[in-house]
Structure formats: C-alpha cells, structure tokens
Protein 1
Amino acid sequence: MRIDLHAHSTASDGTDSPAELVAAAAGAGLDVVALTDHDTTAGYAEAAAALRALPAGALTLVTGAELSCRGGDGIGMHLLAYLFDPDEPEFARERDLVRTDRVRRAQAVVERCRALGAPVTWEQVRRIAGDGSVGRPHVASALVEAGVVPTVGDAFTPEWLADGGRADVPKHELDPLEAVRLVRAAGGVAVLAHPGASKRGRTVSDRTVGELAAAGLAGLEVDHMDHDGPTRARLRDLASGLGLLATGSSDYHGSRKTVRLGDSTTDPAVYEELVGRATGAKPLTS
Ligand code: AMP
Ligand code: FE
Ligand code: FE
Ligand code: ZN
C-alpha cells in the first residue's frame, strides 16, 4: 500500500487540475492520495468524477484541505484537515474568510513586486491562478514569466516572497487551536503539516504542539521533503511522546515544485487509524 496524504491541485497552488492529479496518482502507483488544497474544497467534485473513470479499486481519494494558521506567538503553521464534512457551516465560513483575504493580499503582494521594479500585474496573477485559491506561488510563477527569477523556488527569498520578505504581505489566518476545534467539529481529523520546515521561517515549539495535541490534534507530518533526518527523528519522538500519529507525504504541487507524488508515504496502519477517527466523510474508492 502506497499512501500519500498531501497533494495540491489547481484548486490552489498546484499545477495539475484535480482530474489530472487523480490520474497522476494512479499513474504513480499510489493506492491512496489525499487532495489537500490550501483553504479550499473546490477540487473535490472534479477529483471524485475523475476517480469514477478509473478501474474499480485502483485508487482511493481522501478529501482534505491545508489550513493557513498562525499562533499567538506569530509562528505560521499549516494544518492538514482530512475527511471533514465540507458543508459544515462554521468551518466552511472560516475557510471562505481566509480565501477571500487571499485575493486582497495577493493584490498587495503584486503591488509590492511592482514597486520593487518587477513587471508583473494582477491580471497576470489572476490568469495564472485561474479560479484557484490564490497564493504567493502564483505570484512566483508571474515573476518567473517576467524573467525576474529563474524558478518559483527562487522567488521565495527575502528579496521577494519569503515570509517577511520585501514583497510579502500577511494574510488572514486561523488560530491553530481554533482550527483544530473547527476541523473536529466538522467530523474531520487534523495533522500538523511539515512542522519542522525551518527554511520557511520559525517553526512551532514543542509546547505548542503539546497544546494542539491536548485540543485534539491527531498527528504530525514527519516524513516530508522539507525535513532532514535529524528533524524527522526529533518529530517522531515528539509524536510518540504525545500519543500522536506520524504521517508522511509528498506535498506535491505539480510543476511548481520538484517533489513527485509518493516521494514520502504514510504507514497503512496510521492511515487506517486516521480514517477510523473521521466522522465527517469517508474515503472515496474508484
Ligand atoms: P501562501 O499560501 O500564499 O502564503 O504561500 C505559501 C505557499 O508557498 C506554500 O504552501 C508553498 O506551496 C509555497 N512555498 C513556500 N515556501 C516555498 C519555497 N521555498 N519554494 C517554493 N514554494 C514555496
Ligand atoms: Fe502550497
Ligand atoms: Fe504547507
Ligand atoms: Zn501543502
């Protein structure tokens, strides 16, 4: 069983449409893939339809989302939410608030880039993002198109879009404890995404992870390309000490990142435990 619990589509900052992502997951030999777009469930219907076109039993789709959070200490966190009821109104409203503010923020990021001399426009970023949940990676693609930087990754520096960088602008984000509560109230399970990804900025403290665990967090994403060996070992110890599950996933973004589907995977027993705890939705099988 090859299980990848973190992947993005054009519903946010991935480059594969939800249908293409489902096909790519089957093509990569995955048994389970989770669709976890940033702050949105907009890709679910297309992914589910694409699943029905596959041979019976070929692939299981876990519906999810990756929630943008920031703690009281100012540390940014991404919370993976799986198998929640997408129609539960309170959580749906909070996702909507985050997505709406992403538009204002992306426009402000474009203005900063222009003030810094980069010939990018909001119309260009809007075209690149389509109707997806807009974010810095779309601005990064615009900077690449404009010849300002060679790759998307090169736009995530202090000169441009990195956290606190010259063109970065904050967006509305959820309090992580509140986010765990919202996910659970909608019948979902919550896993902290890439908690040791230090190149993205300051990382969450063990103490905060403990508080999230007490609030009902189910797991930590331990195996992730942004974690080196010692970081994985430390996070695995932290998870086991707090009674949290340890997951692994690619965080696939299509051609916007170099990672491939299935580059990191989750243990089947851990996957079964996550599914067993969810009451908001069931995995979908082709
Ligand atoms: P946003 O959601 O608009 O705040 O942008 C955050 C997103 O940018 C993350 O979900 C990643 O997909 C992407 N990102 C962050 N750091 C990097 C990086 N160093 N290289 C490429 N993409 C990045
Ligand atoms: Fe992303
Ligand atoms: Fe993330
Ligand atoms: Zn992600």
Protein 2
Amino acid sequence: MPTPLAEKLRQRIAISGPITIADFMTACLLDPDHGYYTHQQPFGTKGDFITAPEVSQMFGEIIGAWLIHQWHELGCPAPFSLAELGPGRGTLMRDILRVATLDDAFNQAAKIQLIEASPRLRAIQAQTLGPWAQRVGWHDDFEHVPPQPLLIVSNEFFDALPIRQFVKAQGQWRERMVGLDDAGALVFTIGEAALAAIELPPGHAQAEDGDIYERAPTREAMAGMIANHLSDYGGAALHIDYGHTKTAIGDTLQAVKNHAFTQILSTAGEADLTSHVDFEALAKASTAPGISVTPVMTQSAFLLANGLLERAGRLGANQSTAKQDEIRAAVQRLAGNGPDDMGDLFKVIIINARLTH
Ligand code: SAH
C-alpha cells in the first residue's frame, strides 16, 4: 500500500512530471497534510530516532555553558537573540535555559528565538519549555530573527534541509528525480537535460556512470544568511550534525523508521528523511566580512574540550550505581567512537563574528 503522501505525489507527478529530490524531501518532511515533521512522532525511544539532547541533559548543559562563555567574550551585548534552528521537542533549549539561570545578566538579556516549520512540534516545544515558553518568539525561517546580536545553535537541523542530487549518466551529470514507473509507483529517474554548470568536487573526473553528487542550496543559503547576520550584528553560531568534513561524491540520502534504515520512496511521509551534511560546503557558505569559521571538529572533541567528563563526574557524585552507569553510558553514546556512538559521526562547526565597528 502506498502511503497517503506517496499517493499525493503520484497524482502530482502524473500531471506535471518528475520532481527533484529537493522537492521530494520537502514534501516528505513538511507536507502540511502528511509530512513527517508535521505529523509523526520522530524523537526519543518511542519515536524513530534519538538525538543527542534526548540522550542526556549533559549535552544541552555543555552547550549552555559554551553560550554563556561566548556571550561574555562578545562583551555581554544586551539584548541579544538566543536562537535555535529546528528545536525538535525543545529539549536542548530547555537544558540551555536551565544553565542560563546561573548567570542572571545573560538570562535577562537573552531573547529566545526558535526557528521551527512544524506547528505540531512548536506546540511540543512550548510544553517542554514550560514557564520559558512565555518568552519565546517562534519563526518559520531565519529571516525573521530580530536585527540584534545573535547566539544561535542547531543540532540535526541542516541534515533535514532538502538536497539536490546529480547522477553521472553516459559521461554527463544529470539531476536525479522522482518519477513514476509503468505501474504508477514512485521510482528514481534521471532528468533529461544534461547539466553543464554544476560545481563538482575534486576527483569528479574519475566519477563513473551511476555515481551521485549532492548539493544543498537551501542549506548553503541558510548558512550564508546566518553569516551575514553575524557580520552585521555580532555573535556566534554552533552547528552540530551528522556529516563529513570534505566535499565528496556519494549518495547519503537516507530514511529512518523505528531506529533502522528503511526504503526511501515507499515510506514517503512516514520515515525521517535526511542526508549527511557536507561541512566543507557549509563552511564555505558561511562567509561574510569579519567572520571566522573554526576547522570542523568531531562532537567528541567539542564535548570533551568543553567539560563533558567533569560534568558527568559532578552529576554522578553521590548517586546510585545504576544512575552512575546511566551517566557513563550517555557519555559513551555522546562522545564515544563505536558504531552506535555519536562522538565521531557527528561534526561541529563554530562561526564567530567579533565586531570591531
Ligand atoms: N534539534 C532537534 C530536532 C532535530 S529534527 C534535536 O536534536 O532533537 C529537525 C528539526 O528541524 C525538527 O524540529 C523539524 O521540524 C525542523 N525543521 C526541518 N526542516 C525545517 C525548515 N525548513 N525550517 C524550519 N524548521 C525545520
């Protein structure tokens, strides 16, 4: 049985022809009637996948302490926007705000801004944030964040933004699309026109027929907008995501349901659909006057440098053995390098603007 969204897309494609992977992703994630983020229960042990803030409060606490430090480095601008892109259930922001109560001046100056496209998740965020929800401004996109200094974070946001895919076919690069097979089911196809002007990664000349190259114009546009904002008003951005350090050829589009990889087309709207973030492209897109971008680091390097082990020690002090084991397991999941751990798979990039004018 096709999902309701697959049926909706089938009708659309039957009328107007194949759609790009970017259009397919946008529909799967945010279709108002059947989108994954608009209708499903994505996060947590009961959902389809677990994100770092849901693993342990330590993740958000460390980011909170990092943000407070950044704010002092910036000269304590007041007011400033404390923003998050794609906050999911709101857990990361809640943990950040709990830490922020330790620094009254920071807490007073912070104007909380959440960028969230899903009305359903906005309602969950309001619940998670409890009393803080009164202080939150919600926005559909980054453009509406107020013109003032900005500290912004994101976790697993950029991987959910739509990508385009290009396939090498008979020596030429063509756009990968979603069309219909003879029986009317969704199928991957290749666009008719050859694309002359896509910027290809190093080594592309050796690419073989069937190889796939991904670009994420929406992601890059978002990174560019944030960099411009930081350049104009000062501040810093911290982005954490599943991804790779260097631009490369390869297909990373993936659907996840019930904590396992699943079919991409047949689960339209009912599985999480993401791709790995190309951090080299993200860094390149984050350019504006006065901006500096740190070399990409692993999540484990970032968390350890910012006191994960010390925090775990304090949290576990005088607790039961069971609680201490739980904390140890969370440290391993967040900063370890096993196949199920996030430490090496997730990457971190920091974008900074120290205003001199
Ligand atoms: N940061 C959270 C959730 C990650 S899932 C966590 O770590 O648990 C991706 C989040 O981004 C969801 O909240 C989703 O609704 C939101 N999102 C996806 N695409 C978006 C878009 N184009 N604009 C705004 N929010 C978007």
